[in-house]
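Final report, results section. Input specification for complex C-07:
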Amino acid sequence: MTAMTDEDYTLAGEYVLGLLDAGQEAVVAARISTDADFAAEVEAWRLRLNPLLGPEQAAPAHIWPKIEKTLPAATLQDVGSAKLTFWRTLTAMSVTAAIFLGILLLQQPAPVANPTPMIAALGSEDGRSAITATYDSAQGTMLLTPVALDTGELYPELWIIPADGKARSLGVINGDRPTKMDVSPDMRQYMNEGALLAITPEPAEGAPGGVATGPVLASGKIRIL
Amino acid sequence: MDSARRAKLADALVLAGRGDRNAFAAVYAATSAKLFGVCLRIFPDRNEAEDVLQDAYLTIWNKAASFDIGRASPISWLVAVTRNRAIDRLRAKKRVGTSSIDEAVEIADAAPLADTQLIEAADDRILHDCISSLDQRDAMFIRSAFIGGSTYADLAKNEGQPLGTIKSRIRRALLKLRGCMEAAA
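Structure output:
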């Protein structure tokens, strides 16, 4: 950690004021993500100068409905990157918090030898889609029960998104009635607590090239019973 | 903002980054007055400020996953995203020629009057006093950049001075402002 100089102080201020050209801004933005002391000085300049951008003014009531209407549906990529953000955030947490978490993890009961059934409830924000999944890790089979699922002309494809945030296809499923499916052997390693299951509408033969094309209709994390 | 509210806002912002619409609605409820104030400061026309506010929240929704709680407080991140959206729009308007840098400087020049009326909180008072202690021209440059979107190149052109002269002048003013605010805090 190097000591901050007057040049660093002014550079952080210039960045917050928007005085720099696009190239310099990009360099400073990269430094913020790698240099905590410099990032703290940028934050300090924002706090110093933000009163110039006041005062508060109540926003008219008609604005929020307009914003809500234009929000795009979450995509599988969003869900995946959000998981990565979670891990990044966890990494950035203070040492104290990390130690505290460590203690919590130590206090959890030791894993039992018997395979534990895993469940996931997949839902959507608007409540229009719901499906439950129960995974038997000993058999590698999953029981899927669609409660409500409308994929229109398309077919529901199930995805597993582990901690790396990358979506992997488990195949197109039956959206009309409960079915038991075999999870392919190479996918079983990803079926762990905390991994995310998600459904997107895709062509009958599945998403081309194994990359989801539709919005996420329902998603839910795997939990251990 | 007290620490409990700040923590709640940070949580909601992180959830919004994972696509949680209810959390995003909570972010809006907690911050829309603050961010509309930012929009109105940069675009005094209410209709235009409303458009910018809407645009800013869509940007916030799209960028929420990149919010890094270790690097910024939620409110300063939200204000920065909103200010940058508004300034982008202001600069785009200037490029198509509906307005000029002189206009931005005029807006910025008018700001001290508004400041005097509206400053209440202690932090605002410190900023106001410290900016007032600067050379008037330097204070105007700072406002013109932050609120009017002027870059070094704009200011140098507007002042008819070499870029290097303007830069060293503003850098000196920034160090003075920083020193004044650190001493008062």
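Helices of chain A lie at 6-17, 22-34, 36-49, 63-70, 76-92, 95-107. Strands of chain A lie at 118-123, 130-136, 141-148, 155-161, 168-172, 179-182, 196-202, 218-221, 223-224. This concludes the modelling results for the funded period.
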